[in-house]
Amino acid sequence: MTISVENPVSVHEDFTTQTKTEELQSDSRIPMSTIPSNDEVFLAPEVNAFGREFRNYEDENNERQKSVEEFYKTQHINQTLDFVKKMRHDYGKLDKMVMNIWECCELLNEVVDESDPDLDEPQIQHLLQTAEAIRKDYPDEDWLHLTALIHDLGKVLTLPQFGGLPQWAVVGDTFPVGCAFDESNIHHKYFKENPDFNNPTYNTKTGIYSEGCGLENVSMSWGHDDYMYMVAKENGSTLPSPGLFIIRYHSFYPLHKAGAYTHLMNDEDKENLKWLHVFNKYDLYSKSKVHVDVEKVKPYYMSIIKKYFPENLKW
Ligand SMILES: [Fe+2]
Ligand SMILES: [Fe+2]
Protein backbone atom coordinates (compact mmCIF):
# COMPACT_ATOMS: atom_id res chain seq x y z
CA MET A 1 0.00 0.00 0.00
CA THR A 2 1.31 3.43 -0.88
CA ILE A 3 0.89 6.27 1.60
CA SER A 4 0.88 9.79 0.26
CA VAL A 5 1.94 12.66 2.49
CA GLU A 6 -0.28 14.91 0.40
CA ASN A 7 -3.33 12.68 0.98
CA PRO A 8 -2.88 11.14 4.41
CA VAL A 9 -5.26 8.46 5.63
CA SER A 10 -6.21 9.94 9.00
CA VAL A 11 -4.82 11.25 12.25
CA HIS A 12 -2.97 8.47 14.03
CA GLU A 13 -2.79 9.44 17.66
CA ASP A 14 -1.51 11.94 20.18
CA PHE A 15 -0.82 14.99 18.03
CA THR A 16 -3.36 17.53 16.97
CA THR A 17 -3.17 21.18 16.04
CA GLN A 18 -4.37 21.97 19.55
CA THR A 19 -1.44 20.40 21.34
CA LYS A 20 0.85 22.30 19.01
CA THR A 21 -0.61 25.65 19.98
CA GLU A 22 -1.05 25.08 23.68
CA GLU A 23 2.20 23.35 24.47
CA LEU A 24 4.46 25.63 22.56
CA GLN A 25 3.25 29.10 23.10
CA SER A 26 4.72 29.00 26.59
CA ASP A 27 8.18 28.64 25.05
CA SER A 28 9.30 32.21 24.60
CA ARG A 29 12.81 31.50 23.35
CA ILE A 30 11.62 30.39 19.92
CA PRO A 31 8.64 32.45 18.81
CA MET A 32 5.86 30.36 17.29
CA SER A 33 4.82 30.96 13.73
CA THR A 34 1.17 31.44 12.84
CA ILE A 35 -0.61 28.17 13.44
CA PRO A 36 -1.77 26.74 10.13
CA SER A 37 -5.44 26.04 9.51
CA ASN A 38 -6.73 22.48 9.95
CA ASP A 39 -6.69 21.55 6.29
CA GLU A 40 -3.09 22.63 5.91
CA VAL A 41 -1.71 20.80 8.91
CA PHE A 42 0.21 17.57 8.35
CA LEU A 43 -2.04 14.63 9.21
CA ALA A 44 -0.28 11.48 10.27
CA PRO A 45 -1.22 8.29 8.41
CA GLU A 46 -2.27 5.20 10.37
CA VAL A 47 -0.04 2.77 8.57
CA ASN A 48 3.56 2.74 7.36
CA ALA A 49 4.94 2.27 3.85
CA PHE A 50 4.41 -1.50 4.22
CA GLY A 51 0.74 -1.01 5.16
CA ARG A 52 1.35 -1.81 8.84
CA GLU A 53 1.04 0.11 12.08
CA PHE A 54 4.05 2.38 12.82
CA ARG A 55 6.67 1.17 15.28
CA ASN A 56 5.01 -2.19 15.70
CA TYR A 57 7.76 -4.43 17.08
CA GLU A 58 5.53 -7.32 18.04
CA ASP A 59 4.26 -8.91 14.80
CA GLU A 60 6.05 -12.25 14.87
CA ASN A 61 5.01 -13.21 11.35
CA ASN A 62 6.83 -10.29 9.83
CA GLU A 63 10.35 -11.16 8.64
CA ARG A 64 11.55 -7.59 8.97
CA GLN A 65 10.39 -7.47 12.55
CA LYS A 66 12.30 -10.61 13.42
CA SER A 67 15.46 -8.95 12.20
CA VAL A 68 14.53 -5.79 14.11
CA GLU A 69 14.24 -7.86 17.31
CA GLU A 70 17.57 -9.49 16.61
CA PHE A 71 19.00 -6.01 16.15
CA TYR A 72 17.73 -4.86 19.55
CA LYS A 73 19.08 -7.94 21.26
CA THR A 74 22.61 -7.14 20.05
CA GLN A 75 22.20 -3.45 20.84
CA HIS A 76 20.99 -4.02 24.39
CA ILE A 77 23.77 -6.46 25.19
CA ASN A 78 26.59 -4.29 23.87
CA GLN A 79 25.70 -0.71 24.81
CA THR A 80 27.50 -0.37 28.13
CA LEU A 81 28.77 2.77 29.86
CA ASP A 82 32.37 1.81 29.00
CA PHE A 83 31.48 1.36 25.35
CA VAL A 84 29.74 4.75 25.22
CA LYS A 85 32.70 6.50 26.85
CA LYS A 86 35.08 4.98 24.34
CA MET A 87 32.91 5.97 21.36
CA ARG A 88 32.47 9.55 22.59
CA HIS A 89 36.22 9.84 23.05
CA ASP A 90 37.12 8.34 19.66
CA TYR A 91 34.50 10.13 17.57
CA GLY A 92 34.84 13.37 19.53
CA LYS A 93 38.15 13.89 17.73
CA LEU A 94 36.18 14.56 14.52
CA ASP A 95 39.11 13.35 12.46
CA LYS A 96 37.26 11.16 9.95
CA MET A 97 36.45 13.61 7.17
CA VAL A 98 35.90 17.22 6.15
CA MET A 99 32.73 17.93 4.16
CA ASN A 100 29.73 20.23 4.04
CA ILE A 101 26.21 19.39 5.19
CA TRP A 102 24.78 18.77 1.73
CA GLU A 103 27.63 16.43 0.78
CA CYS A 104 26.77 14.44 3.88
CA CYS A 105 23.07 14.29 2.88
CA GLU A 106 24.15 12.73 -0.41
CA LEU A 107 26.60 10.40 1.27
CA LEU A 108 23.83 9.16 3.55
CA ASN A 109 22.01 7.72 0.55
CA GLU A 110 24.30 4.72 0.84
CA VAL A 111 22.87 3.85 4.27
CA VAL A 112 19.84 1.66 5.06
CA ASP A 113 18.57 1.62 8.65
CA GLU A 114 17.96 -1.99 9.70
CA SER A 115 16.32 -1.01 12.99
CA ASP A 116 13.44 0.80 11.32
CA PRO A 117 10.34 -1.35 10.74
CA ASP A 118 8.68 1.45 8.73
CA LEU A 119 11.16 2.43 6.08
CA ASP A 120 13.21 0.99 3.25
CA GLU A 121 13.71 4.18 1.24
CA PRO A 122 17.01 6.00 0.59
CA GLN A 123 17.82 8.12 3.61
CA ILE A 124 17.90 11.43 1.73
CA GLN A 125 14.22 10.93 0.97
CA HIS A 126 13.48 10.44 4.67
CA LEU A 127 15.39 13.64 5.48
CA LEU A 128 13.57 15.67 2.85
CA GLN A 129 10.14 14.16 3.53
CA THR A 130 10.51 15.03 7.21
CA ALA A 131 11.83 18.53 6.52
CA GLU A 132 9.24 19.36 3.85
CA ALA A 133 6.33 18.14 6.00
CA ILE A 134 7.48 20.22 8.97
CA ARG A 135 8.16 23.23 6.74
CA LYS A 136 4.60 23.14 5.49
CA ASP A 137 3.20 23.44 9.02
CA TYR A 138 5.88 25.73 10.50
CA PRO A 139 6.90 27.88 7.53
CA ASP A 140 8.74 30.49 9.60
CA GLU A 141 10.85 28.15 11.74
CA ASP A 142 13.75 27.70 9.36
CA TRP A 143 15.91 26.24 12.16
CA LEU A 144 13.33 23.44 12.49
CA HIS A 145 13.43 22.66 8.76
CA LEU A 146 17.20 22.43 8.94
CA THR A 147 17.07 20.32 12.09
CA ALA A 148 14.80 17.90 10.23
CA LEU A 149 17.12 17.82 7.23
CA ILE A 150 20.20 16.94 9.27
CA HIS A 151 18.78 14.93 12.18
CA ASP A 152 19.87 11.55 10.76
CA LEU A 153 23.18 12.52 9.16
CA GLY A 154 25.03 10.71 11.94
CA LYS A 155 24.04 7.44 10.29
CA VAL A 156 27.15 7.83 8.14
CA LEU A 157 28.84 6.05 11.06
CA THR A 158 27.95 2.78 9.31
CA LEU A 159 30.08 3.70 6.28
CA PRO A 160 33.66 2.42 5.96
CA GLN A 161 35.09 5.98 5.92
CA PHE A 162 33.65 6.42 9.42
CA GLY A 163 34.90 3.17 10.86
CA GLY A 164 31.97 1.12 9.53
CA LEU A 165 30.25 0.77 12.91
CA PRO A 166 27.70 -2.05 13.20
CA GLN A 167 24.04 -1.05 13.02
CA TRP A 168 23.54 -1.57 16.77
CA ALA A 169 26.06 1.21 17.45
CA VAL A 170 24.41 3.66 15.06
CA VAL A 171 20.63 3.31 14.89
CA GLY A 172 17.65 2.20 16.96
CA ASP A 173 16.09 3.75 20.05
CA THR A 174 18.53 5.27 22.52
CA PHE A 175 18.56 5.15 26.33
CA PRO A 176 20.77 6.32 29.20
CA VAL A 177 23.61 4.09 30.35
CA GLY A 178 25.00 4.26 33.90
CA CYS A 179 21.55 3.89 35.45
CA ALA A 180 18.82 1.23 35.36
CA PHE A 181 17.35 0.39 31.95
CA ASP A 182 13.71 1.45 32.16
CA GLU A 183 11.12 -1.20 31.31
CA SER A 184 9.63 1.00 28.61
CA ASN A 185 12.65 0.27 26.40
CA ILE A 186 11.47 -2.03 23.62
CA HIS A 187 12.64 -5.63 23.99
CA HIS A 188 13.76 -4.78 27.51
CA LYS A 189 14.41 -8.45 28.33
CA TYR A 190 17.67 -8.42 26.40
CA PHE A 191 19.27 -5.95 28.81
CA LYS A 192 19.67 -8.85 31.23
CA GLU A 193 22.70 -9.90 29.21
CA ASN A 194 24.26 -6.42 29.36
CA PRO A 195 27.21 -6.45 31.86
CA ASP A 196 25.92 -3.18 33.40
CA PHE A 197 22.61 -4.82 34.28
CA ASN A 198 24.03 -6.48 37.38
CA ASN A 199 26.43 -3.68 38.36
CA PRO A 200 25.05 -2.15 41.60
CA THR A 201 26.58 1.25 40.78
CA TYR A 202 24.71 1.40 37.49
CA ASN A 203 21.48 -0.47 38.10
CA THR A 204 19.52 1.88 40.38
CA LYS A 205 16.98 4.40 39.11
CA THR A 206 19.46 7.31 39.15
CA GLY A 207 22.63 5.20 38.95
CA ILE A 208 25.70 7.45 38.65
CA TYR A 209 23.50 10.54 38.12
CA SER A 210 21.30 12.68 40.37
CA GLU A 211 17.68 13.86 40.13
CA GLY A 212 17.31 16.82 37.78
CA CYS A 213 20.97 16.74 36.74
CA GLY A 214 20.09 17.58 33.13
CA LEU A 215 20.35 15.27 30.13
CA GLU A 216 23.57 16.90 28.99
CA ASN A 217 25.21 15.23 32.01
CA VAL A 218 23.79 11.82 31.13
CA SER A 219 25.61 9.36 28.86
CA MET A 220 23.27 8.02 26.19
CA SER A 221 23.72 4.77 24.28
CA TRP A 222 26.01 5.55 21.36
CA GLY A 223 24.50 6.19 17.96
CA HIS A 224 23.77 8.68 15.21
CA ASP A 225 21.95 11.14 17.51
CA ASP A 226 24.83 11.88 19.84
CA TYR A 227 27.37 11.83 17.03
CA MET A 228 25.49 14.40 14.93
CA TYR A 229 24.99 16.56 18.01
CA MET A 230 28.78 16.50 18.56
CA VAL A 231 29.42 17.43 14.94
CA ALA A 232 26.98 20.36 15.08
CA LYS A 233 28.22 21.62 18.44
CA GLU A 234 31.96 21.28 17.81
CA ASN A 235 31.73 22.91 14.40
CA GLY A 236 30.06 25.96 15.95
CA SER A 237 26.54 25.59 14.56
CA THR A 238 24.24 28.45 15.60
CA LEU A 239 21.13 26.23 15.68
CA PRO A 240 19.03 27.18 18.74
CA SER A 241 18.91 24.93 21.81
CA PRO A 242 15.70 23.05 20.80
CA GLY A 243 17.27 22.19 17.42
CA LEU A 244 20.36 20.69 19.03
CA PHE A 245 18.15 18.88 21.56
CA ILE A 246 16.06 17.33 18.80
CA ILE A 247 19.17 16.11 17.01
CA ARG A 248 20.60 14.64 20.20
CA TYR A 249 17.49 12.94 21.60
CA HIS A 250 15.18 12.18 18.69
CA SER A 251 15.74 8.41 19.09
CA PHE A 252 15.22 8.60 22.86
CA TYR A 253 11.73 7.06 22.58
CA PRO A 254 11.62 5.91 26.22
CA LEU A 255 11.63 9.61 27.13
CA HIS A 256 9.60 11.32 24.44
CA LYS A 257 7.13 8.52 23.83
CA ALA A 258 6.91 6.66 27.14
CA GLY A 259 7.75 9.51 29.53
CA ALA A 260 10.50 7.54 31.28
CA TYR A 261 13.73 9.03 32.69
CA THR A 262 12.11 12.43 33.28
CA HIS A 263 13.75 12.51 36.73
CA LEU A 264 17.05 13.20 34.98
CA MET A 265 15.78 16.28 33.12
CA ASN A 266 16.40 19.90 34.10
CA ASP A 267 14.17 22.88 33.23
CA GLU A 268 15.81 23.54 29.88
CA ASP A 269 15.29 19.89 28.88
CA LYS A 270 11.60 20.18 29.75
CA GLU A 271 11.20 23.19 27.48
CA ASN A 272 13.12 21.56 24.65
CA LEU A 273 11.12 18.35 24.97
CA LYS A 274 8.03 20.20 23.72
CA TRP A 275 9.76 20.81 20.42
CA LEU A 276 10.97 17.24 20.25
CA HIS A 277 7.34 16.09 20.55
CA VAL A 278 6.44 18.28 17.58
CA PHE A 279 9.38 17.01 15.57
CA ASN A 280 8.75 13.35 16.30
CA LYS A 281 5.39 13.29 14.56
CA TYR A 282 7.07 14.31 11.34
CA ASP A 283 10.10 12.06 11.78
CA LEU A 284 7.91 9.03 12.29
CA TYR A 285 4.89 9.60 10.11
CA SER A 286 6.24 11.37 7.03
CA LYS A 287 7.97 8.16 5.92
CA SER A 288 6.42 7.57 2.57
CA LYS A 289 6.86 6.15 -0.92
CA VAL A 290 6.24 9.59 -2.41
CA HIS A 291 9.59 11.08 -3.36
CA VAL A 292 10.55 14.70 -2.86
CA ASP A 293 12.14 16.35 -5.90
CA VAL A 294 15.66 16.86 -4.54
CA GLU A 295 16.84 19.42 -7.11
CA LYS A 296 13.72 21.52 -6.66
CA VAL A 297 14.10 21.98 -2.90
CA LYS A 298 17.91 22.02 -2.76
CA PRO A 299 18.35 25.83 -3.14
CA TYR A 300 16.17 26.48 -0.10
CA TYR A 301 18.05 24.02 2.08
CA MET A 302 21.43 25.30 0.88
CA SER A 303 20.40 28.78 2.05
CA ILE A 304 19.49 27.68 5.59
CA ILE A 305 22.56 25.46 5.87
CA LYS A 306 24.62 28.58 5.16
CA LYS A 307 22.75 30.49 7.86
CA TYR A 308 23.42 28.01 10.67
CA PHE A 309 26.62 26.16 9.72
CA PRO A 310 30.12 26.94 8.49
CA GLU A 311 30.92 25.96 4.89
CA ASN A 312 32.99 22.91 5.80
CA LEU A 313 32.65 20.75 8.87
CA LYS A 314 34.92 18.30 10.58
CA TRP A 315 33.30 14.86 10.98
FE1 LIG B 1 17.26 9.17 13.56
FE1 LIG C 1 14.68 10.13 11.23
UniProtKB/TrEMBL annotation:
Primary location recorded for the protein, binned into one broad class: cytoplasm
Cross-referenced Pfam families: MIOX (PF05153)
GO cellular component, one term: cytoplasm
Binding, substrate: 55, 113-115, 155, 172-173, 250-251
Biological pathway: Polyol metabolism; myo-inositol degradation into D-glucuronate; D-glucuronate from myo-inositol: step 1/1
Record's cofactor remark: Binds 2 iron ions per subunit.
UniProt binding sites for Fe cation: 126, 151-152, 224, 250, 283
Subcellular location: Cytoplasm
Catalytic activity: myo-inositol + O2 = D-glucuronate + H2O + H(+)
Basic and acidic residues: compositionally biased ranges: 11-23
Keywords for the protein's UniProt record, in alphabetical order: Ascorbate biosynthesis, Cytoplasm, Iron, Metal-binding, Oxidoreductase
Entry cofactors: Fe cation
Record-given protein name: Inositol oxygenase
UniProt organism field: Microthlaspi erraticum
